[in-house]
Structures are given as structure tokens and as C-alpha cells.
Task: structure prediction
Amino acid sequence: MPLLRIMAGPDGVDPHVTGEPALGDPALVRLQGLRVVTVEDASLLPMSRELRDARERAVGALIAAGAEVERVKLKSWRRAVLPYLVTLQAGAGSTTIALLEEAGLARPTWRTLLGRRGPHTLPTRITIATELLPPVGEAQQRRLLAAGRKLAAELEEVVGEGVLLHPAHPRVAPRHGSTVGRPWLFTPAAVFNLAGMPATEVPLGLNGRGLPLGVQVAACRGRDHMSIAVALELERVFGGWVKPSI
Result:
């Protein structure tokens, strides 16, 4: 919360931030009667049992603190990948290709991307490849942007004045590089960016292999203090961050 108070509000650079932020105080949040939502069947890749169990332990801790739990289905969440990517592209001030050219590098081609000795990392190659593909038509872009706004509105309606608990990834601690080129794996985190909702990641201990478990606590726009208040309670119950033992 101290860092949020420093970062929130206009900085004279970002034109999308106007006015002083009306930040709430986590210390004033009452967990008694707080609505806690979980979303089921939301991911194309089913949530692992380990993460589901970790989330359920977090839910149990909040119930013990007086919260009320509601379980919902939001299948439109599964279709969030394309609306999310198109929304990102529509809001970007410049392409990766343009940034590379501004830095004095030669314009990438399919030949340089597919060659073994190319100058770019695999994630950068994938990003450039998407930019070299034919652009999405205007009509399709409008449909996908509208779908993104609809999903954001549905998510905000579901969460309301409460919070939503959901793991940031369907599997425990994926290996570095294993998610490259698989944007659908980021859906559990991307949806909150798409909706502009604050989310606080909470450590929930380690699994049997010594890898970290955790859950996101998300709230509606302007209610960052709600997600942080719930995160603080879960930290108190589960002990916070633990060094992985693997």
C-alpha cells in the first residue's frame, strides 16, 4: 500500500491518468460479510489440483474470518485471449518492429526470424511474427474490442463490491520458456488487465516439490485497498512468502 500511494495518480506523462486517486485504507476493510467469489471452469487448460486446493485453503481462511463465498461460472473468460491481444495492440503507441528500427537495427523479415543465427530471442521473434502477419480487419477488430469490453463488464458485475480469488496460472511454477507462444495460458491474469482491475498475488506456501503456490485477489477498479486487505489477512494466516526449496 505504501508503494501504491507513491505510484497512483498523475505523473505528467501518462495522458490516461487524470485527477488525484481516491485510495481507500486496507485497515478499514471489514472481512465480516465480505463477498468472496471464485470462478469455475474459466480456463482452457484446467486448473491443477494443487492450485485448486491452495485456493480452497485461502477461501476457508476467509470464511473463518466471516467472509461469504459465492462460486460462479464465467465461460466467456475462456474466449478472452484474442480480445486481450487485440486490445493490447489497439492501445500500443508503437510496434516492436518500429522500436527495433528506431534503435538502428535492420527491419526484421521472415528470413531473419526463421534463421538459427537471428539476433532476437524467441519471445521477440514470436512478437515480431505476429506483427508481420496480415493485420486483423477493421470489422473483426471492432468485434474483438467489443467482446473485450463485454467480458470486462461481466467480470466487474460478478465481483461487485467484493473480491475474486483465482490462481494466476493453471499450473504450478511453469519452467522458463514453456509458456512462450502459448498466450492462452495467461488468460487467468490477462482478464484482470483487460478489465483494468487491481489484483494482488498472495503466496500460499510450497507444494510437495518445494515450488511456490499462490492465488490472485482481484477487486473492481478503484478498490485496490480491498484486494490488499484480503491479501494481508491471507499473509497473516499462511505466513507470507517462503523460499522455494527446490
